[in-house]
Amino acid sequence: KLVRAATWLLIVGVATGILAANFGLLAFYTVPAHTDEAHQLMYWHLSTAAGSLVLFAWVATVRWYRRNTRLSSSSRVIGVVAAGVLTVAGYLGGRI
């Protein structure tokens, strides 16, 4: 079923997001001196990436517990918002 596959992909995405966050924190604390602009971008990148991870984790949790029912409109909207926030985080990470 596609719904089951989508649920597992969300769960795996959140798990790999947590792994990426750990490496991001390692980089945050070990990167040598950098410009003020890069420093500001790092905080924005950290905030947006963490925000998207929380939103995706919420959607994955809702999908897991309600896997036998249709996904609500609010969960769909939150998923789209999370994707948008993740896009911004990726852009900021590329700028750094």
Describe the protein in words:
The protein is mainly α and 96 residues long. The protein is built from three helices and no strands. The model has no long low-confidence stretch (mean pLDDT 90).
Please summarize what this structure is.
The chain has helices at 2-30, 36-65, 73-95. By secondary structure, it is mostly helical.
List the topology elements.
Layout: H1 2-30, H2 36-65, H3 73-95
Helix pairs in contact: 1-2, 2-3
Query: Can you tell me the overall shape?
Result: elongated
The largest pleated sheet is described as: none
Q: Mean pLDDT, rounded to whole units?
A: 90
State the low-pLDDT regions, or none: none
Strand content: under 5%
Overall structural class, as computed from helix and strand content, comes to mainly alpha
Distance between the termini: 40 Å
The number of E-state strands comes to: 0
Rg, Cα atoms, Å? 15 Å
Instruction: Please give the share of residues in helix.
Output: over 70%
One letter per element, helices H and strands E, the order comes to HHH
- How many helices? The count is 3
